[in-house]
Structures are given as C-alpha cells and as structure tokens.
Specification:
Largest sheet of chain A: none
CATH superfamily of the largest domain in chain B: MetI-like
Mean pLDDT of chain B: 78
Shape of chain B: flat
Structural class of chain B: mainly alpha
Shape of chain A: globular
Radius of gyration of chain B: 25 Å
Largest sheet of chain B: none
Strand content of chain A: under 5%
Largest interface: A-B, 55 and 48 residues
Oligomer: heterotrimer
Distance between the termini of chain A: 9 Å
Chains: A mainly alpha, B mainly alpha, C alpha/beta
Helix content of chain B: over 70%
Number of strands of chain B: 0
Bound molecules: adenosine-5'-diphosphate, magnesium ion
CATH class of the largest domain in chain B: Mainly Alpha
Amino acid sequence: MVNKEYILKRLGLAVLVMFGVYTIGFTLTFVAPGNPAQAALGQKANKEAVEALEEQWGLNEPLPVQYKNYLINFINLDWGESFRYRGESVTGILASRYPKTMYYAVWSLVFAIVMSIPLGLIAAYKQNTWVDNLSVLVSQVGISIPNFWLGMLIIAILAVWLDLISVVPDVPTGSLWSFPGFFTHVTDYFGIIITLGTALMARNTRMTRSSTLDVLSEEYITMARAKGLKERTVVLKHALRNALIPVVTSIGFNLLLLFGGAVVVETVFGLNGIGKLYIDSIIRRDYPIIIALLLTYTIGVVFVNLIIDISYSVIDPRVQLR
Amino acid sequence: MPKYERLSPEELEVYEEFKRKENQKIGAVFLVVVFVFILTKWFLLTRGNIDSILLRYIGVGAYLLFFYFFLKNIYRWYSDVNYRYRANPIKRFFNRFYKNKLAVFGLFVAITIIILAVFAPMLAPYNVDNYQSSWTKFSMIPPTKRHVFGATNAGADLFSLCLYGARIALTFGIGVTAIGVSIGIVLGLIAGYYGGWIDRFLQYLNDVVMAFPFLVLVITVMGALLANPALRESVTQIGNFLNVPGKLFIAFVALSLFGWTGAYRLIRGKVFSVREEEYIDAAKSLGASNRVIMTKHILRNSLTPVIVQASISVGGYIITAASLTFLGLGANPSIPSWGRLLSQGNAYVTQLRYFHLTLFPGLFLTMTVLAFTTLGDGLRDALDPTMRRNDQ
Amino acid sequence: MKAVEEKKTSTERDKKETILSVRNLVTKFYTEEGVVEALEGINFEVKKGEIYSLVGETGCGKSVTVKSILGLLERTGKVESGEAIFYRSSTLDRPVDLLSIKESRIRKIRGKDITYIPQDPSSSLNPVYTIKNQLLEIIRPHSDISKKEALEKAKELLEEVDLAPPENYLSKYPFQLSGGQKQRIIIAMALATEPSLIIADEPSTALDVTVEAKVLDLMEELIASHDTSLILITHNLGVVAQISDRIGIMYAGRVIEVASTENIFYKPYHPYTFGLLKSVPSIKKREKELDFVKGLVPDLYDPPSGCRFHPRCEYQTDVCKEKKPPYEEVEPGHNVACYYSKEVKKDRREEDL
Ligand SMILES: Nc1ncnc2c1ncn2[C@@H]1O[C@H](COP(=O)(O)OP(=O)(O)O)[C@@H](O)[C@H]1O
Ligand SMILES: [Mg+2]
C-alpha cells in the first residue's frame, strides 16, 4: 500500500513547510535586534568585547548572509552555542530537555486516548443517557479549562492539600526512558500528565463520540445487525474501527496541542522541559535555541504525521497512499 | 412528546392574550431590576460602600429573576404552538437551542459576563486603581463579608478585580475574533477568486501557521515585537493613537495576526464549492458584477459556520490572552486581568490559605470560556444539526 | 352459513402455507420535531415459496415496515402495536411473534431464518473489511462448521451469484467493486444460511437499468432453486410485474390493497391502484414510477384524517375524512381498504383495463 513516491512527495512538502517555519522563525528573531551580545556580557562590558562576541556569533554579517549561514549550519548539524548559557552547545541543551518533555507528552497522549475512546464510544452508543451527558460535560469543561489553572488546582489540591504527589519531581532524565523507569516515574509526573492530557482527552472524547454517532447510523451497521451478529460484535468490530479513523488522523494535531500546552504548564510545575526553555529563550533572545527548537519540533511533527498517514492506511483500506 | 397542531382562531386569541401578559411581566421585572440597580447605586453613594452587601444580593436576585423570565418568554414566543414550528426555521432554531441545557447555561453566563464587564465600574464595590500598591493590613485576607473573594497581596478587593478582569478578557476574545474573521473572509475570497499562485501562497501560509501551536506563534511574535525598539515604538504609537496601552496592543496585534486561518479555510472552501455548482457556471468567468453576486451568495451561505466558529474561538483567544499575561507577556501589569491575578496566585499556590487568589480568577476565566464554548456548540447544533463536527 | 364455513377452511389452508403474517403493525418515530406516524396498521402475509411484492411511493413506509419486523429500527422508532408471526423458526418449533420476542431470540432468527437485502449495496458493506471477512461472518455463527468448510461455502455462494472465480472477490474490499458486484455479494450473504424468507428492500434501485434487470432475474432464479420466500420491496410497479406472485400496494403507512399480480393489474379495487394503472400506458414500460397520481404524498408528521388517501381521491366523501376504512376481503385472496371499492369496480369495467 505504501509507495515510495508518496513518501517522497510528502517529505518534499514537509521540507517546504520547514523552510517556511525557518523563515518565519528567523524573521521574528534576527530581525528584532535585541542585542544579545550586550545582554550576554552585561551592560558594563566594553564595546570591543561586545563586537568580538558579535563577530563570533556571526551577528555582524548582513541579514541575508546570516539567514543562509544559519540554514547551512543547521543542515550540517552544527547548531552552535547558546547565547544565554555561554559555552553550552545547543545540541547539549536540547538533548537534556527533550527527553523530559517527550516523557510526559507521551504519557499524556496515552492517558487521553485510554480515557477518551471508551468514553466517547459508550456515550455515542447510549446517546442521551447520563453517560452521554457526562461525556459532553467532561469534554466541554476539559476544552474550556485553561491548562495552567488546572495545573495550579492539581498542585494545590493533590500535592499540597492531600499530599498525594510531589510538587516538583526531581528525576534524572536518563532514567525516564529506561525500562522500569518509564513506568515507575509516572507517579512523579502524574500532575503534569493529567494537566496536559485533559485537553486532549476532552477533544478526543468529543471526536470519538461524534464519529461513532455518524458511524452507528450507517447502513452497514444495520446490515451487521440484520446478519444476527451480537451487539458486542456490531459495536467493537464494525463501528469502532470506522469511528477511530478521524481520531487517529488528529493525533498529529494532538501533539501540537501538547507542545503548546507544555509552554505554559511547565512554568506552573517548574519543570525544565522544552516549553520552559522556549519561553526563556524568547524572553532572553537566545536565537540559536529558538531556531533549533522550532525546527526540531517541526521535524518531529512532520515525521509523526507521516507515520500516522501510513498507519492510517492500515485502519482504512480505502486510503491508498498516492 | 407533544404533538403540534394548528390553532383555531379562538385559541390563537387566547394565546395572543397570554403572550401580552407575559410581555407585561417581563417589563415589570425589567423595571424592578433597573430600580434595584439605581437603589443600590444610591446606597453606595450615600453610605460610602457601607452595608451594601444585602443590596448586592438583591441586585443579583433581581437579575436572575429577570433572566429567567426573559429566557422563558423567548422560548414561549418562538418555540411553542401557533404553527408547527418544523416549517419555521427560527422556531426550529429556538426549540433546538433551548433543549440544550448546556447551551442555555452558556448563553446565560456569556450575557452575565458581558454585563459585568460593561458595568464593572458601577458594580465593583471597591476601587481598583491602586491595586499594585505595597503590602497592607488587608493583604491576602481570605474571603470575608466585605471582601467576598478576599484580597490580593496588595490588599485590593479580589471581587472587584475579577469584575474588571472581564473587560480585558472580553476585549481580547471578541476583538481578536472579529479581526481574525474579517481578515479570514477577505483572504478566503481572494484565494478563492484568483486561485493560481495567490491561492497556493495563502494555502502555504496557512499550512505554516497551522504547523505551530497558536500560543507558541503568538509568544514568538510578542518576543520579537518587544525586543525590537523600533517595532515596539511604532506599534505602541498606534496603540496610543487608539488609546490602548502599548504592551496590551502588541499582544492584541500578535493574536490577530494569526487568528484568520479558520474563517479563511471556511470561506475558501465555500468559494470553490460554489464555483463547482452549475448555476454559477455562467459566472465562472467572474466578471465584476458576477463576483459581487457570488460574494453575497457565499457570505450568506457561510454565515452559520462562521458564527459558530467565531463563538467557539472567542473562548480560545481568551485562554491565549490569559496565558500570555500569566507568562508575563500579555497585558500591562497595571491593567487588572485574570491572567495576571493567576500568576500572582501561582506564586502562592503552595500555601493553601491563599488559595482564593488562585480559585476565583480561575473560576471566572473557566466559566467565561466554557460559556462561549457551549454557546458555540449549542448554536451549531441548533442552526444546522447536520453540520459535521470537525473538532479541531 | 355455508359460505362462512367455506371461508373458514380457505383461511385455514392459507395459514398452513403462510410463513409470515403481519397484523396491524403500527410504528411511530418520536423525533425532536414531533411524532411521525409512519405506519398505521400494516396487514399482509407471505406464503411459502412465493415472491410477495410490496409496492409504494418513496416515503410510504416500506423500509420502516421491514425494519419494524426485523427489529432494526433506529433509536427514535417504536413499534406501538401489532404482531408479526413467523411460522418457520429453526430454533423454536412454534410460531413466534417477531415484535414481542426477546432481542437475543430475534438475533437467532435474523440472519438465519430471515435474511435482509438492504436498499443501497454501496453503503451496506463495511468499507474496512474484506468480502471474505464479511461473508464468513454470517456463515459461521449460524452453523457449526469449520472455517475451511465455511470458506468453501462462501466460494460456492459467490459462484452462484455469478461472481467467478470467487478467489478474485474474496480478498477484495468493497470500494474495489462495482455497485452490481456489491449487490451480488449481498445477495450471496442473504442466501448463505438457507433462510426460509428473504426480505429485499429495493435491491435494484441504486443500480443502472441493465444491471437492475440482471440482478432481478438472478434473484428470481435463486428463490426458485433455494425454495425460499421473498418479500420484494420496490417503488416501481413495472419492475415486479413479471416476477411476483402477489402484490401489496402501500400508501402513506398502510397496505391498501393486496392481491395476486394478475388481479392487481386487471382487477384493482382501490382508487389509488386504479389511478396508478390508468396512468401506466403499458406494463412493459418498466421505468414508470409511482408518482403520477395527482397531488403529493402526505406529510406523516401531520397525516390526513380518516383514509390518508382522501385528499387525492376522486371518490372521497365525508366518511373518508372521518374514519379509516376497514381492510376487507372483496374476493378470495384479494383485500382492499376502501369504502368505494365497488364503485371502482364499476368504473374499471367501463374503462376496460
Ligand atoms: N428515523 C426516522 N425518523 C423520522 N421519520 C422517519 C425515520 N425513518 C423513516 N421515517 C419516515 O417514515 C416514512 C417512511 O419511510 P420509509 O419507510 O423509509 O419510506 P420508503 O417507503 O421510501 O422506504 C417517511 O415519511 C419518513 O419520513
Ligand atoms: Mg426505503
């Protein structure tokens, strides 16, 4: 089913979008001369030192040259050093931040999917009953509640008042992605996982519910019943797989929401993931980090979307990747 | 399940009479509400805010009563008897809408918040001008009779601040939506009419914008605008001209810049589908007058989805604006906003006795967003039950 | 006295052969917009080995009739009263009322003793499963055979419906097949469990004319060779003229006339049937549909009082507006619901159909 041409075409499109992202990112950072060299050396630093640093960072070149250089360096995986953490390489900083955010992002996604699909399915199957009303309420509130406030509530209630979780988990990133660690550390990051996962859960519940409602009114469901199949078979075999199609397609969008959420929620939980890194870098004008974050993140999203497209054709045979 | 039948002339007479009486009731309740407002205000003036609590409760009660009658009567007018409403789209709309409890709740809360925002200076029991001043003996007091929500760390009345916070939130939510929808409609029409590279470019721009989480995009732009003195100056100047504080205006611009994609996609899709339709075949060459006709046709047909989408996105922009302020990037600190109050609350989040600073602004924020979300959902279900929920 | 006795014995003989008997079936839909009185007392019976056609304009309740009998109504639909006695249940030895037995029981009858061919073949196959998967799904649960035997059976069935070689079709997904092929597969499914009754709801409407004719011929053939009965639903009187044994004419939620095919065409007693035939220049003209009697099909949210046909009827009098006409036998095996059947008979002679 999967053909090479399709993947190449998709990758070509992805490269185009990345180029756009880079251009926007570059424009929004480099065009605004926040004078990072001065900031890095302090207000009292002398002019020569500032200029030397600017030269070292390539900031004295004309903008088009900088634009080109940055792109070439990025492709060569030479991402330079951070403006803010002098002497630290961008690669090293990203390598220490990404695993953490990825860790709770993955668990949030798991939480969202595990909760939302059964809830949406049951709600649609039992339309207009209390389960259905509950699911509608849960999804509306889940979509509307600002994630940072939810995080604050969880800290105040679960961590401080009931003392069930720790406020600021201190876990070495290395052990997050090791075998038992991956599962045992869930409790440490419980608060942020729920906080980030709630919005996704709400959206997916709503989507599962509405797509299941659509599917249940399809003629082939009536046909399945007319064949004398058990209700369980009708719902779990014939309805579920079709109902999941839009939910699977939107996983890429879910990742978008997770990254956006991490920017605020990591501040609430005081976690040094990429969300907080991004905010800090924006405020401190740490250009190399901003660009690197934007691009790596886009690569990730594009890649995930590609995988989803391919696996999508497994769920839905009508989709032939072309 | 009631069965609706046409009424005989005599029955219609009775029904009209009944409607007149109900209208009089609404009028009476309205007068009472106005009276109570005036009375409250008068008391506040003469007694210098003292002992106005009871009256405040009376005011709230009268408002609820008024709202109740109002809703009940609109429902009566539009959904009941007379003709079988199935044939009448307006009646059908109201009937569907009122059956949706969450949507009615949303409508109620949205209207309430709008009233609170508009009349905040009258309704707020305390002055909030100096709410940033230093620690006083009122600092962080928990809710009391005088200060129903307690006070902030500067000793300002939290309830008053929450009321004022509604102003900025709604300005952002409704303002950004209005601008975003307008830009989106124009770009969508352009893309649809001209096609070719213009369409491809806009589509590409849309793709790139959609590749970012909205908040991240806005933060990036805010960062750039704030870091660049020249840019900041010029935007601030425009802001000053419009009588809006600089940083706030920058946030507003940053949000509006990217709020167009939803309406754009809707309108563009509509233009293309209308062009496909046969009866427009003649207009395909798209002479100027044809284009005017077509635009009218398109706008009329996309009204419903645009309204629905706008209503839902109001909530989203309110959250984004609050997030920005929460992160210290949004509204100026001198302007009371829920995001700012919450970021203060966040500093004390581990101390339970200061929980009111987290709870109340957050409740206001969540309720407002919830109101617009449920309202939008209710509108969608009522306006067009077959409209697909592409829940993105 | 004697006449009565004779009638009695004749009904007894009828009963023996009857495999499904529907009496006073009333179904309503409770929608947000009001109550739809979709069926107001359906009466008909189906005999062993016959093709019984149910004919009526679109929206007159044909599909609802089928779905009520099989318990396949949407959530909003409710069977208010009536019975549908099925005499050939293979799991129970006695006649059962399909409208009142438990869901678990009717599930054993659906797909086994009574199978269903839906209106639109394209949307009736699940897009995400192969033909093999969907065929085996009906063969296996209803009979204790191994997977291999079931597969053999599936191949046989496909050959029977002229889809050869079967291997070509088994591994396909529905979207890879044409409308006619899909309809054949659905027919194969309907035959898979050797049912005693097949209900086909407009099995050919969604197909184009040449395919339609082929599918109908195939069905006639298969019904004969498998010795089952068929309820054939259509809005096109011409289509069923040649293949059906008896015809029931439906109008706005009621069967208004039932008779042998011959009688329907040459001795109609109901003004509606009469009107239909008058406007068909020739039975052979197959494309003619039933939408030519003056006026519109009534709105079932607010149906006309009394006889629902009265606003369009040239024979109508006050009694038609007030009371629903009874469903009576006018000749042996010929039932009509009309106060003025005799007048129709007279006019018919004059017109000489
Ligand atoms: N789910 C439903 N809700 C409301 N009304 C329905 C529903 N299904 C069918 N009806 C109504 O019942 C009547 C008969 O429909 P149907 O049996 O599908 O007609 P047809 O004879 O064309 O098969 C129609 O007037 C239709 O409006
Ligand atoms: Mg039908």
